[in-house]
Amino acid sequence: MFCPKAASTPLKLATLFSAAILFASAQGLGTSDPRPRFEVASIKLSRPDATMADMRVAFPKARMEAVNITVKDLLLALSGFSGKVEGGPKWVDSDRYDISAKADRDFTGAERAQLIMGLSGGTFQAPSAH
Asked: Under DSSP, is residue 100 helix (H, G, I), strand (E, B) or coil?
């Protein structure tokens, strides 16, 4: 059965994240960049019956596991982030995702933001200081 909303969600995911995977792969070619990067990531819609109580983010050794999280919540979970996440399409605050990613090496709390922004393919814009 074809569902227009379900069809648009994979398109959103592709728009946000597929370029990031290709970019991360290409970044490692011919360079000795010491920064960690995700070697592989799985990003899919959360279960439709998931509740706020199901939401969690964890960073076990060289991995990131996020369950039932919005893009907005993921940005708020970044180490050292303080402030508001404003703007963007409505789905940034409503659609929930399960994300599992494996880094090429262990990473510090300070490197988390860089890794997560890499998942987005650079589509998120960091707020500028005023």
From this structure: strand
